[in-house]
Design a protein that fits this description.
single chain; 422 residues; mainly beta; five-stranded mixed beta sheet; 33 strands
Length: 422
């Protein structure tokens, strides 16, 4: 019998219910000048959802790359350079290169970045979108960053500023976007410290507001014996159970204490697990039709976890090793699930090439671009690209697009995936 002990040790957490109905919200007017002159999207509105694929995507040959948001005014630096109400510390280039990643609003076909920076890098906690599924993709800043003063900045604290909003941090592969809400389940090396926290925050895409939803692991000492247990692990959304899973201690914790947790996106209840997490900085993807999570580590290891067989009473390692793809390196590229071909696609500084993991044989193959391809992405930042390599499941014509962001001064790279990959 499968174990589904999902509610034991759960706690309800105070927080704003952020359910969204696009049909019940008014369309967004064009972005306007905020206080201090920054470009800010209007609150409590829904962006128009594209129902057809943009012409530039339709005209792309399959298995080719192109660039969008390429003009200087459309790039991330243009949106990030707009004046802010409060002066921010650090370098805005850290929005992409400071061990950070993004996620995707699948409904709107937008890439989303938020709270990227941390440690000695950029202090801003503002949100950015790139409307990839449009005829004229460009970056836009959604809101103003916090004044980078005050708040709590001790180990496993609220990791916030005086206004209650989270500090920027190394986001790695943790941001998840569900039903109009950007989730940040834990915070590694939050700004102006080397400290970390399992404080869980959510940003409403329509209200443009952050909400704190409790600590995933409130009793966790993230600095035991002078060794910082930086939460470099990934998050995934299990659409069957409506749970966001977070492995915050993937590279260090192996003592059988609570080290993995979930948060229910509707009830906001947190459940904690005692699974050991003993391999390094990694990526993860949820496979809905197989009810499993696949992990790919920075040294190429491929592992799976059966999501139909989980229990809060378990200790040990519930991961099955499936192979190794031969990659090496300290920090990761990106990993996504391509539902049309029922396979995993990843990029790890491969230029125009991709790699595919077959979910039946676990064979790894290289996907070379079509002969028509003329665009080759540049080098991955030394700190990895993590969730800045992502996928838009539906571009409006039944096909998916890979999205790759390598820097604030670079265009966004888009790859057209065929539905069938031989």
């Amino acid at each position: 019998m499968k174990r589904r002990d999902l509610l034991a040790s759960s706690v309800g957490l105070a927080g704003l219910s952020l359910s969204q109905s696009v049909g019940a919200t008014r369309p967004c007017p064009p972005p306007s000048l905020g206080i201090g002159g920054g470009i800010v999207a209007s609150a409590d509105c829904a962006a128009a959802v594209a129902t057809q694929a943009p012409e530039w995507f339709v005209n792309m040959p399959e298995r080719t790359w192109t660039t969008v948001a390429a003009a200087a005014d459309d790039r991330l630096r243009a949106a990030a350079s707009q004046p802010t109400t409060f002066r921010q510390a650090g370098d805005i280039r850290d929005l992409i290169v400071a061990f950070v990643g993004g996620t995707v609003d699948q409904l709107r076909g937008q890439m989303i970045l938020g709270c990227n920076g941390g440690h000695a890098a950029y202090s801003g906690n503002e949100m950015y979108i790139c409307n990839v599924r449009s005829e004229s993709p460009r970056w836009t800043r959604l809101n103003q960053p916090s004044n980078p003063i005050g708040g709590e900045a001790t180990n496993n604290s609220l990791a916030n500023f005086a206004d209650g909003n989270p500090r920027s941090c190394h986001t790695y592969y943790r941001p998840v976007f569900v039903d109009g809400t950007f989730w940040l389940p834990s915070c590694d090396a939050f700004w102006n410290t080397e400290l970390s926290s399992t404080a869980t925050y959510a940003f409403s895409r329509t209200r443009l507001q952050w909400t704190y939803h409790g600590h995933g692991l409130p009793g966790m000492n993230l600095n035991q014996g002078g060794f910082y247990k930086w939460p470099q692990g990934p998050s995934v959304f299990d659409s069957d159970t409506r749970l966001i899973w977070n492995w915050p201690q993937f590279n260090v914790l192996s003592d059988g204490s609570e080290s993995v947790y979930t948060i229910h996106v509707d009830t906001k209840a947190i459940t904690r697990y005692r699974y050991r997490c003993n391999f390094g900085s990694c990526q993860a993807a949820y496979i809905p039709n197989r009810r499993m999570v696949v992990f790919r580590t920075s040294n190429g290891g491929i592992f799976t976890m059966d999501m139909t067989d989980v229990s809060t009473s378990d200790t040990g390692v519930p991961y099955v090793r499936r192979g190794n793809d031969g990659s090496t390196g300290t920090f990761n590229g990106g990993l996504v699930y391509h539902r049309q071909s029922d396979s995993l696609i990843y990029w790890h500084d491969y230029g125009a090439n991709l790699r595919r993991i077959d979910l039946d044989s676990w064979a790894v193959t290289t996907l070379e671009p079509a002969i028509e391809n003329t665009t080759v992405p540049g080098s991955m930042p030394p700190q990895g690209c993590h969730g800045n390599f992502n996928i838009i499941n539906e571009m409006g014509n039944g096909q998916a697009a890979l999205v790759l962001i390598l820097g604030i001064d670079q265009p966004v790279h888009v790859y057209k995936l065929p539905n069938v990959i031989a």
